[in-house]
């Protein structure tokens, strides 16, 4: 299916009637040069340094139980199945052998609701079960359980789940697993795990199903930060992206005390401790993993070593369990650069991992999954002319994996944009133009077909109807929607890292004539473009909402920086 391009300009929307395939076929190819460069074009600049009060786990839970504004004006209530509880055998035996207490039955018993099962409750079949005659000698506990199983009186459901055949999926989902069972070679779900999307205070939550899975609620969801919490476990943070089932290994709370004691570390004010594991797409731990010490303070890096997974102060890379711990992390966007030791002293550099810790608990866990190779393309053009700028242009992926240059028609082939549970940051620089960012998983649905590059004067002309003038201290978001994505009126809302609506941000929509209008309060399906102004630096979630019902339709992660134009596509 061919791609057509639209150019963001002052007049009505114009379409360049030439497909990607046609241009690539008829024009000479200029090879994309790949040159070594500094580790980052972006992360060496000041970013998101405003101090934020860090919430402890208990406070997050307390705030979660109070009413709050959610990322949708109204959400249809969906009755979720209650998780089944697995009771220990000794508790079941105690419940069965407990002495019977006779209670006088009233003449007219009042109807009472069926009580919910709690831990230690005997799970019996619908047919009443009673011991009619006692054996000559008391049965041992194990024998009694076997006898009850034979008679169908007890139904104990295992937490064990089957290994998925593939992590590829059509939705944005996560798979929540018990980390202790994972180390023992089993995949076990975590009962009653709650998934908070964006932030625990956002109020947008999901419960895991009987296979340990949870999906972002909206149909057009491409990426979102998650925080998973369950009783007895440390909270986990990461990103769910469309196209891959993101594994989330929950560490039991009992694990963290001995680990911190062994490395002589503890949580400090306005700092985070991040405990995590490297795993393969085959759901196995990966050894010989480490982080680039150029970006991380070596005194804050710790790895487990040996089969027992004991953290060793002298370890320079992870052992067979794949565990790591990062200490003294500020509550802001983190840039992690993993690498894997190979044979013959070679090193395989993993794609960078970006992780926003702002406003979260002081001790967190995360799971870093091996990426899958993928290639994707886009085209860069001048915002008004629709042609490739004559100035020099180059792009990078998070300041990593070399530099990519467009061909004579502006096409850039990103042959190293792998699929993984994270959102890449693509930076595009062109002489005389404002810096351009694209925050996208490796998928054509969210990577714009065409990326218009703006000069500061061009952006000023676009914003002229709003009365706003571009400021280099502010960030700007230019967005669009594919014609097939939405079939009803849509409004855009932007939420910050704390799960709150960013009140300073102003959303402007285009009319059918291709200009911004103050009177337009929703996306025009004939010209589905919008611009968001007055956005501070940071990580955000943009949410598409049905104007008529208030229901959420889509969500994705984006990041901003002062003097930068960030592009987003639904």
Helix content: 10-25%
Tell how many strands the DSSP assignment holds: 35
Outline the biggest β-sheet: 9 strands, mixed
How much strand?
Answer: 25-35%
Classify the secondary structure makeup into a structural class.
mainly beta
Compute the CA-based radius of gyration. 27 Å
Concise account of the structure shown:
This protein is mainly beta.
In words, what does this structure look like?
This protein is globular. It contains seven helices and 35 strands. The chain starts with a strand and ends with a strand. It has two domains: 160-369, Immunoglobulin-like, CATH 2.60.40.1120; 373-569, Immunoglobulin-like (Sandwich). The model is unreliable at 1-70 and 72-139 (pLDDT under 50). The chain is mostly beta strands and 570 residues long. 10% of the residues lie in helices and 31% in strands. Strand 1 and strand 2 (14-16) form a beta hairpin. The strands form nine sheets. A nine-stranded mixed beta sheet has the order 23-22-25-26-35-28-32-30-31, with no helix packed on it. Strands 14-13-15-11-20 form a five-stranded mixed beta sheet, with helices on one face.
Topology:
Layout lengths: L4 E3 L6 E3 L3 H7 L30 H8 L24 H9 L43 H10 L22 E6 H5 L10 E4 L7 E3 L5 E3 L4 E2 L1 E7 L6 E6 L3 E6 L2 H11 L8 E8 L9 E3 L9 E5 L4 E3 L10 E7 L3 E4 L1 E4 L5 E3 L3 E4 L6 E7 L6 E7 L10 E5 L2 E5 L6 E4 L9 E7 L4 E6 L9 E4 L2 H7 L12 E6 L9 E6 L10 E5 L5 E2 L11 E7 L2 E9 L5 E9 L3 E6 L1
Parallel strand pairs: 3-10, 7-34, 11-20, 21-27, 26-35, 28-35
Antiparallel strand pairs: 1-2, 3-6, 4-5, 4-8, 8-9, 11-15, 12-17, 13-14, 13-15, 16-19, 17-18, 21-24, 22-23, 22-25, 25-26, 28-32, 29-33, 30-31, 30-32, 33-34
Helix pairs in contact: 3-4
């Amino acid at each position: 299916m061919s791609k057509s391009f639209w150019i963001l300009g002052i007049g009505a929307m114009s379409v360049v009637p030439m497909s990607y395939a046609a241009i690539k076929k008829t024009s000479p190819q200029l090879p994309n040069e790949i040159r070594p460069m500094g580790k980052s074009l972006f992360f060496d600049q000041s970013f998101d340094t405003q101090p934020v009060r860090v919430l402890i786990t208990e406070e997050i839970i307390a705030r979660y139980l109070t009413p709050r504004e959610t990322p949708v004006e109204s959400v249809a209530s969906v009755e979720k199945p209650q998780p089944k509880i697995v009771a220990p055998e000794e508790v079941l035996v105690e419940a069965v052998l407990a002495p019977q207490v006779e209670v006088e039955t009233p003449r007219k018993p009042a109807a009472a609701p069926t009580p919910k099962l709690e831990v230690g409750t005997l799970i019996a079949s619908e047919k009443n079960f009673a011991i009619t005659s006692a054996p000559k000698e008391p049965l041992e506990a194990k024998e009694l359980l076997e006898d009850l199983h034979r008679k169908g009186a007890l139904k104990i459901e295992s937490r064990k789940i089957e290994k998925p055949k593939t992590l590829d999926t059509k939705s944005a989902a996560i798979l929540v697993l018990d980390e202790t069972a994972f180390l023992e070679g089993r995949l076990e779900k975590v009962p009653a795990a709650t998934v908070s999307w964006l932030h625990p205070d956002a109020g947008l939550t999901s419960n895991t199903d009987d296979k340990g899975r949870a999906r972002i609620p909206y149909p057009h969801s491409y990426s979102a930060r998650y925080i998973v919490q369950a009783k007895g476990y440390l909270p986990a943070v990461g990103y769910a992206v469309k196209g891959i089932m993101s594994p989330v290994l929950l560490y039991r709370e009992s694990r963290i005390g001995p680990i911190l004691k062994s490395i002589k570390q503890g949580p400090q004010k306005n700092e985070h401790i991040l405990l995590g594991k490297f795993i393969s797409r085959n759901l196995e731990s990966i050894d010989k993993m480490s982080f680039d010490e150029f970006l991380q303070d070596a005194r804050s890096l710790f790895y487990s070593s040996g089969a027992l997974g004991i953290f060793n102060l002298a370890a320079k890379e992870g052992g067979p369990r794949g565990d790591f711990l990062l200490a003294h992390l500020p509550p802001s966007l983190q840039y992690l650069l993993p690498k894997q030791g190979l044979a013959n002293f070679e090193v395989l550099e993993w794609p960078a991992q970006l992780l926003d810790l702002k406003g979260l608990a002081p001790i967190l866990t995360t799971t870093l999954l091996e990426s899958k190779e993928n290639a994707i393309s886009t085209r860069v053009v001048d915002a008004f002319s629709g042609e490739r700028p004559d100035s020099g242009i180059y792009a990078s992926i998070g300041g990593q994996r070399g530099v990519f240059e467009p061909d004579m028609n502006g096409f850039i082939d990103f042959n190293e944009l792998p699929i993984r549970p994270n959102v890449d940051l693509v930076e595009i620089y062109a002489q005389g133009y404002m810096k351009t960012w694209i925050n996208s998983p490796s998928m054509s649905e969210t990577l714009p077909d065409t990326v218009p590059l703006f000069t500061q004067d061009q952006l000023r002309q676009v914003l002229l109807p709003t009365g706003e003038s571009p400021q280099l201290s502010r960030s700007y978001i230019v967005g669009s929607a594919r014609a097939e994505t939405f079939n009803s009126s849509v409004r855009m809302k932007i939420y910050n890292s704390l799960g709150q609506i960013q009140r300073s941000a102003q959303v402007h929509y285009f009319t059918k004539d291709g200009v911004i209008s103050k009177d337009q309060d929703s996306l025009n399906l004939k010209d589905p473009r919008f611009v968001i102004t007055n956005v501070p630096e940071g990580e955000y979630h943009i949410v598409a909402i049905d104007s008529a019902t208030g229901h959420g339709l889509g969500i994705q992660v984006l990041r901003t920086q002062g003097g930068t134009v960030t592009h987003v596509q639904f």
